[in-house]
């Protein structure tokens, strides 16, 4: 007994504070979540009061029976975890010298139930993360159905680790942990716009990395638009003459690299080829796509060549963009260039179509072509609002503009994605993080059948007045507020946004520590801090 | 002949464009620099019209006779070059298949004349970079006196490489190159302020990396000030109770890591411990340093403890900060808390000192202590203005406020650093890049002896209203404009800032490609782009 007491005494000297307390199980609820610093909040969390230390040589161990990690997705995710843990601080304590080795977490043991690593819509992203107190040596444990759930678990684990400035080692507090988690919505997106401002590949990769911290899982890449066409299209190589400059371009190999980079992090890339509007840049290389030299949008509906080009684009991108969906745009179509251009108005007359019917014809033809390449289609809401009954029933309606669209579309049996501009447009600097947090995708949708049709939502980083110099702070932390709305169980969401201020501030500072230029919480979007102060209070 | 012609024909098919032209030697002058895209502009540049291709497996070869690179500084610099070249684009061509292998640059051959790798003030940073047309295989050649000159050469080399969207390989245009280069000033600084806002280590490292792109070589780390004291001081461990929060701190090991990270990139870290003003935060842990609980600045000049603490700080930092200089501040000293606090005014009376003499006494005592640790001292200009004749002759005067100080200080034989606030304060968002570019450190200093006393200059990123979320775009590109003023030979500088707009825009976009959030050129400091457009035109 005396020897044991002596050992405990020595441990106290070596290890500093060692708290032993009665195990307290807490189910997470919004008011108890004050103690938690995890963002977004998991489905179910129980934690205690003990502390473990992260070993200097943390290792990854796996079950290996089902999931072999042949492509190294899990291993790379683990290395990214180590990079995050080791890059923020300098660890000075040598955990090999700790007398009580059971207090040292030596590794993370990951068991993944499925053998494949295909990332597709609706993939199981659930996980269980546990950090038990017992163990000699101690381990953290992850169980997941797929490797993508395991990646989420590693992210959550990174958020319960702390560098202790006294012990100079990374610690896990509030042990033992048992976390069950899965997302509320399967589609949790962020739109970026590389037409209004070109974004270098490295910047896009940084955005993808930052998305993983908040468990966002779809990067909606609005690649081309009126102002520029930066993507290589091998079938029609003059299309990218519509770039701003010869260097502000993406080759197909680079697009494939972005898809690969994202996929290995559990993120889908949704390519958008917006037609028939928002397409002026297409005509720089192929002027015949314009109704006329003076009337350059929408794309010429009367011309077979227009649809040959669209088909070529879809054919090329289908080789690279493997997400189940493609976004065909279809928003803000001003048809006056059709009716005012003689050869097109003649064509309309011959076909017996008015402008609105021509718009419908265009969208349906584009849908048909995209389907032939195996895609399911997402379209902006105007297509539903104008000719919903004619759309392919599998169309996903992307709501951005008019109130009531989500109710109407789901009532008509369509799936929906929510991006209502008054709440989830990141380029609206006046929209506060509280408003981002409070925006409920199922607002006014009460029937379970309709609720089930809402795939999720997306915050939109339109690029008219944003480029690589300020995109990160315009996205974060407001996108994080929406990310919790999309991940966390409805009952665990704060009813009043201000309740999560401290936890979001903590997440914002975590982003800064990881090199992500997340803006202060106070003020408008991307506001600079107005005075000296702590990261946690601004 | 026919066979040769046939081979040339095949080469043209395989390699695309192959231009052979008469060799044109151009010495760089500001107006010819329009063709160059290097920033900052080198001393002497000759180039041609030919093109070489960068081999897929670019290798580093060295002479080895003098410089062994035992600590891997050169090798790491080379890997950073590869990371930059390969990370921006996806290389698709296989240079091993090029028929004419003499067109492929297989490696960079580096010869360094000195054996050591000590980084100290005045280290030789010169280099010669040549890319000859002849060679089978072709090589780029670097000669430098020190490894730090070689690092600059690698940076310049990275700026003459281009990803060609047709050949899908990195090319070097305008071959053959012969570049001789060295800095005009040996001190080319950037100040960061981690007291007004804590900057995570990762952010500081990003700033250091970005400095290397513009060949800045001193990071003036204004570590502590009124608002917070984030640095661990082992001799007086309560000093960092003055942090904003328990996590917004740097351990000494982390400070050492920053020094190491910078040193391996050729950058000195200048630590500033500003006394006796700007020091309120010191008293959070040691309230006796304050004149009184209600009057908390400057540090109590009457107390031995004050100087014991300063001595402890200097002792601790001297173990980590190995730059020849330490900055002791001494600016903006409001002595009213001395005269209004009884025990101090009594002490002044006893010592026969007025407030001004007490200020002088304080600064000289701090200088004496810093000297005892082997440091040379930098002080802000008020010390010179108020008691220049009493300062140690080796003091370097840091000009920021009053016109004429540099002329007066150099006339009195002092070395100077220039940071005049109306031109080189980055937190002044209204100061344009043109004004940064045009600010001449030797303005009105005509005598060669006095000119030689101007060590260089520094742009200051004060942190009152800047944090990790917006520091990069507040620094860049305006700091780059100053970086050229400090590096480039006076005769090669543009007499009118607007002449370098295109080249600076190119450098800004290069920074973006490398993941540095450099702001558009147009508008105020860190202004967002006002509309869609090309990086090169905003």
What does this molecule look like?
2 copies of one chain form a homodimer. The first copy, chain A, contains 17 helices and 16 strands. Mean pLDDT of chain A is 92; it is low at 1-31. In chain A, helix 2 runs parallel beside helix 3, helix 4 (201-213) packs parallel to helix 5 and helix 6 runs parallel beside helix 9. Chain A has 538 residues and is of the alpha/beta class. Chain A has 2 domains: 2-181, Chitobiase, domain 2 (2-Layer Sandwich), CATH 3.30.379; 187-467, Glycosidases (TIM Barrel), CATH 3.20.20.80. The first copy, chain A, has helices at 2-15, 73-87, 147-159, 201-213, 252-263, 304-318, 336-339, 342-351, 355-372, 381-387, 405-411, 421-424, 433-438, 448-451, 471-475, 478-487, 501-513; strands spanning 44-46, 50-62, 104-112, 127-131, 138-144, 161-164, 169-175, 177-181, 187-193, 218-222, 268-272, 325-327, 376-380, 396-399, 415-418, 454-461. Chain A has an 8-stranded mixed sheet. At the A-B interface, helix 4, helix 5, helix 15 and helix 17 of A face helix 4, helix 5, helix 15 and helix 17 of B. Chains A, B: Keywords: Glycoprotein, Glycosidase, Hydrolase, Signal. Chains A, B: GO terms for molecular function: beta-N-acetylhexosaminidase activity. Chains A, B: Residues 1-30 form the signal peptide.
